[in-house]
Structures are given as C-alpha cells and as structure tokens.
C-alpha cells in the first residue's frame, strides 16, 4: 500500500483490491528471485474515521476474497501466504487483524492449505497471553514464528514477561521445524544483540551455529 498515506497492507481494505493484486504480483517476483517460499499478506488498517465494528463485516469479506485469490496464485509458484495478527493495544490501534483466534477463523473460512498463520509471540502475548495453550491449539495452522520480549520488544533475554527457553522447548516438543524470526529491536548493536543466541546454544550443548558438540 501507500505507506505515506498511512496504509500498512491492503488485503482487508475495501476498494483497494486492484492495488493488492498488483503488489502481490510484485512480491512473487521478489520471492522467486531470492528463493523465499513465504509471503506475509498484510491485512491493513481500518480506514481513517471509520468505526471498526461498523466496517468489520465488509473488511472480512474483502480479506477472504483477497486471500483466496492470493492462495490460488501462490499455489502456482509452490509458495505459502502468511497472515499475522498485530496487536492493537500498543503497536497499531487501527490494524484489522489482531488475534490468533480471528486469524484462525478467517483461515478456516478461506479454506486454502497454502495459507498459514504467522504467529508473532510479542503480539500474541499483548492481546491474549496464554502462549502455551495458543501454540498448542493453533500449531497445525502455524507457518512461521516471530519473537520479541514483552513489553520492550527487545532481545529474548532482556527483562520482560516471556520465558523463551521454555517456549523454544515447547516448539521443539510440538515438532516445529520452521524458522523463528527475530522480530525485535536490538537495544544496541545488532551483533552484540545476538549474544542471547550464543548463550542459548551453549546452554543446550551446541556450538555457535547450532551444531552439536557430539557431532563435532
């Protein structure tokens, strides 16, 4: 969308279907060029001046239709579309898609196997908490995980509400084999900020890079 005009994705924005399709086609070309099989289909914001409840039905209809179109297009390229709930309590008060429950209901309604949930645990914690149960409940729908500490949105080992070693072990026990995206703002230098990962690997008996010492 037009970021200067305050847009943040278009998939659920009524009247912007043509621009959504054009943007999707461009994104597919980028993904093919860099070998990335997943695209985040951003829902977008409730239009300025509109009441969320009053436009919810029209936005869901638009979102559903656009997601079906995207899924069919992405299937031709063997790609997966992702939808991400973004909290409207701190990060973006006008964002349309806010909770994993809302996302799961829409994914079920759309009914396409190559559409998945992009679950950012920062947003999920702020909106609902109950992370263990939510991960277990929505695990079959999850196509990507993102992490950040709450409430500061910094490194996972920074002070905050979330116990990431526990969460990582839970993901392993559930059989998650995808990437975990570091969707956080480093408190300082990016490389220094990755010190938490080196410490985590060492606590698990792994060398830097995630390889087993036994394998070495």
UniProtKB/TrEMBL annotation:
Picking any one GO biological process from the record gives: glyoxylate metabolic process
Keyword list (alphabetical) reads: Isomerase
Q: Where is the Xylose isomerase-like TIM barrel domain?
A: 9-199
Kindly list the GO molecular function terms attached to this UniProt entry.
hydroxypyruvate isomerase activity
Pfam families recorded for this chain? AP_endonuc_2
The record, for InterPro entries, names: Sugar_Epim/Isomerase, Xyl_isomerase-like_sf, Xyl_isomerase-like_TIM-brl
The positions making up the signal sequence are none
Entries under PANTHER family matching the protein: HYDROXYPYRUVATE ISOMERASE-RELATED, ISOMERASE
What protein name is recorded for this chain? HYI isomerase
Gene name for this UniProt entry:
Hyi
């Amino acid at each position: 969308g037009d970021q200067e005009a305050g847009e943040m994705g278009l998939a659920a924005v009524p009247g912007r279907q043509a621009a959504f399709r054009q943007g999707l086609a461009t994104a597919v070309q980028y993904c093919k060029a860099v070998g990335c099989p997943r695209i985040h289909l951003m829902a977008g914001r409730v239009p300025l001046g509109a009441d969320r409840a009053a436009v919810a039905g029209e936005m869901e209809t638009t979102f559903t239709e656009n997601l079906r179109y995207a899924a069919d297009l992405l299937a031709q390229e063997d790609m997966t579309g992702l939808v991400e709930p973004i909290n409207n309590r701190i990060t973006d008060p006008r964002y349309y898609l806010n909770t994993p429950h809302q996302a799961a209901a829409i994914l079920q309604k759309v009914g396409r196997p190559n559409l998945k949930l992009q679950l950012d645990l920062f947003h999920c914690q702020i909106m609902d908490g109950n992370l263990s149960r939510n991960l277990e409940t929505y695990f079959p729908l999850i196509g990507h995980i993102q992490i950040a500490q709450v409430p500061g949105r910094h490194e996972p080992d920074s002070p905050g509400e979330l116990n990431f070693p526990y969460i990582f072990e839970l993901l392993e026990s559930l059989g998650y084999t995808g990437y975990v995206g570091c969707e956080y703002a480093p408190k300082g230098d990016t490389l220094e900020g990755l010190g938490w990962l080196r410490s985590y690997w060492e606590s698990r008996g792994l060398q830097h890079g995630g390889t087993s010492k036994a394998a070495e």
